[in-house]
Amino acid sequence: MIIKPKLFFGLRALFGKLIFLFQKDLPNLRGKQFFLRCLTQFFGSLPLKSKEGIWLKILFTSSMDLSYLDPLGGGHELIREQISNLRLGDIVIDIGANTGYFSLIASRKVGGKGKIFSFEPSSREFIRLLTNINQNSSLIICPLCIAASNEFGVANFFISSQHTGINSFHSSDGTDACQNVILMPLDMLLLNLNCDEISLIKIDVEGRELNVLEGLSKILALGIVLKVIVEINEAFQTISSGNAIEIYKLMHRFGFKARFGLQNVKHYDEIFYLPIKN
Hints:
By secondary structure, the chain is an alpha/beta fold.
């Protein structure tokens, strides 16, 4: 018997929903993760709909994937807030797009005349990003499998077996898969857009935020970027690039103000903005 694609998708979505509800009620014991790993190895990622009505392919072993479905926000409230302020026709740059959750939300805000550029170097997440774009018919999203940096090159990139949100240039536990990725400063690409304004740049790259910002220096110096959301993660930035102080110094040099300022916590999101335009 041949199962039609829509029916097949519907069955996988129903199964995904049942697993999601079931795993929410399971206690966080070691057996739970083993159970979820077995399901993931057999079924792979399964489609689930977020509270925004966006279809996402979810790996149940990843707390990052599950956070997108958290009705309480999953720790993403600040980014959602900034996306909610976008207007029709805006341009958004999503660096470290993962499977495209934020790109997909933003695409609904900026409409058909807007544009989203989504950068994700992990081949596993990039494939799911492409699937999610197709499933949600988000034709304005331009996905690129590139690692934003401050130099051109090729480097080893480690894909976490346990958590899709901590893929990085450093292996977390020695069991991560390794792939080659292209390094590229994004200045050249974004300058060729010839746009008057970039409404939002989101950067979440597991410690290499300073490298990415250095590779955006020419764009930042032009004063056409209105806001930049940067993840500050002391542990990752210590082993990957510069620390938070250097990030704040660089952004202040280009005339950006910080919404919160340097915090005495190890992990948070900062919003840098141009005061003359906000």
